[in-house]
Design goal:
The protein has 5 helices and 7 strands. It is α+β, with helices and mostly antiparallel strands and about 160 residues long. The protein has a domain at about 5-110: Gcn5-related N-acetyltransferase (GNAT) (Aminopeptidase, 3-Layer(aba) Sandwich), CATH 3.40.630. It has a 4-stranded antiparallel beta sheet. It starts with a strand and ends with a strand.
Length: about 160
């Protein structure tokens, strides 16, 4: 991993950067796995305010490169819920570093497998981290009126 990467708990002021990372990641990394219409609708009715409560709680961990937020991870007991990167840092070890932090967080207070609803583009990454496919599903948490996004249900012991 790049030694200039700093991973820290998010704060409320990071909500805008988290929103930007999510949108850039979807638009840059999901192409080829989802239709143009799915990508266009992906963010649903989300705004930076959507991310503010989780950022303010410190549950989200952000990765900074030279003081700029370039990725983040979020987890709850038993589930790695989100991991997004700016496309320009993909393949540089940032995702692996965030994954390790998120996996530790998902294991806190939880015995048993950790699960994730992986996007089609991210499933190979999670498979390399020891996750196995246990099913298929859809992610519909983008607001009313938006079509669901297909995902791969994965688990790791």
């Amino acid at each position: 991993m790049d030694q200039r990467i700093n991973i820290r708990p998010a704060v409320a002021a990071d909500a805008e950067a988290i929103f930007v990372v999510t949108r850039a990641s979807v638009e840059g990394l999901a192409r080829g796995h989802y239709s143009a219409a799915q990508i266009a609708d992906w963010m649903g009715d989300r705004t930076p305010e959507t991310y503010r409560p989780d950022a303010a709680s410190g549950r989200i961990k952000v990765a900074e490169l030279d003081g700029r937020v370039v990725g983040y991870v979020d987890a709850v007991p038993g589930e790695l819920t989100r991991l997004f990167l700016l496309p320009e840092v993909a393949g540089q070890g940032v995702g692996k570093a965030l994954f390790a932090v998120g996996l530790r967080q998902a294991r806190e207070g939880h015995a048993g497998p950790v699960r994730i609803e992986a996007t089609m583009n991210a499933a190979p990454f999670y498979a390399r981290q020891g996750f196995r496919k246990v099913g298929e599903g859809t992610f519909g948490g983008r607001g009313a009126g938006f079509p669901p996004i297909p995902v791969v249900l994965m688990e790791r012991d």
